[in-house]
Specification:
304 residues; alpha/beta; 4-stranded mixed beta sheet
Length: 304
């Protein structure tokens, strides 16, 4: 029967399919998430959201790097199996096998390049998050200054990088990592001009960082006012580590800074006095929201 000539060569693909199943089973091997020994909730550290995305990027790189050769060789292995069950070979059929394998190699090569670029960007973002987190940790001295710092605060649809609670206002701190451009003379171009609605970098411009910071400020101020019953001053700060920031044309509602003196600026800016009761309630609300979101994430995860 003619159909057996196409069905029987699939036997030679079974070992490759078994190896692919092992690769899929090991895809979650690179998981650096750490849970608390007390309540089993994920521990939140500076840049935790980026750490999670970096783990996912490494998992994708592992899958593409492992499954790519298996999938790309499958047409050729199938074709060699066909040689055992047919009496006459057709060069067109072998050409199709070769073209399919070549196309699969190109696709997986592009996927690996994409994964490499994604991991590189995430590592740069994580490095900036950790640097800003260390700057903010200098504010935490409960005996002398009633400051509190929260990392990766979840909202309904996105995550706020940092929230700093002070007696004179609440600050939303968003961090963006961007690689400096290279000029024609080989030197780094690290100056960024801030306008009302966009950031003008040497060779490109962006609107989303300012929009995201304003969105975070709007959500946090509305949520705190709803929970506390009184308006609470909230200001957004967009940090661009390593950049020289020109704010002559910037708007007044968002502070765009390079981050070197972030802790000092947070202690010097006064948005308005906050009573001790409201101050403590804000800290309690942020703690509860972080714990609630972590608990919900833990419940949504499938059991092992």
């Amino acid at each position: 029967m003619v159909w057996l000539e196409y069905l029987l060569p699939l036997i030679f693909l079974f070992p490759m399919a078994a190896l692919g199943a092992v690769v899929l089973a090991l895809r979650g091997l690179h998981d650096a998430s750490v849970r608390s020994p007390f309540d089993a909730n994920p521990l939140r550290a500076p840049g935790q959201a980026l750490r999670t995305r970096l783990d996912q990027a490494f998992s994708t790189l592992f899958l593409n790097g492992s499954l790519g050769p298996l999938v790309s060789l499958s047409p050729l292995v199938y074709g060699m199996g066909r040689m055992l069950f047919v009496e006459r070979q057709f060069w067109v059929e072998w050409a199709l096998y070769g073209l399919l394998s070549t196309a699969l190699v190109l696709i997986f090569s592009l996927l690996l390049v994409r994964d490499y670029q994604r991991i590189r960007r995430l590592k740069l973002g994580l490095a900036c998050e950790l640097a800003i987190g260390q700057k903010l940790e200098r504010l935490v001295h409960p005996e002398a200054h009633p400051y509190a710092v929260f990392h990766d605060v979840p909202t309904n649809s996105f995550t706020i990088d940092h929230v700093v609670v002070t007696p004179r206002g609440i600050f939303v701190v968003e961090t963006r990592a961007r690689t400096p451009a290279i000029g024609t003379d080989g030197r780094e171009l690290k100056q960024v001009f801030v306008e009302r609605e966009r950031l003008r970098f040497p060779h490109w411009q962006e609107r989303r960082p300012l929009h995201k910071t304003r969105q975070a400020v709007s959500w946090l101020s509305e949520w705190l006012e709803q929970q506390c019953g009184v308006p609470i001053p909230v200001r957004g700060m967009l940090v661009l580590p390593g950049w020289e920031v020109d704010t002559r044309d910037a708007a007044n509602d968002v502070s765009v800074i390079s981050g070197e003196a972030l802790a000092t600026q947070l202690t010097e800016i006064a948005l308005g006095e906050i009573s001790e009761a409201v101050h403590d309630k804000v800290i309690y609300l942020l703690l509860e929201r972080s714990r609630l979101q972590q608990t919900l994430k833990h419940l949504r995860q499938p059991s092992a």
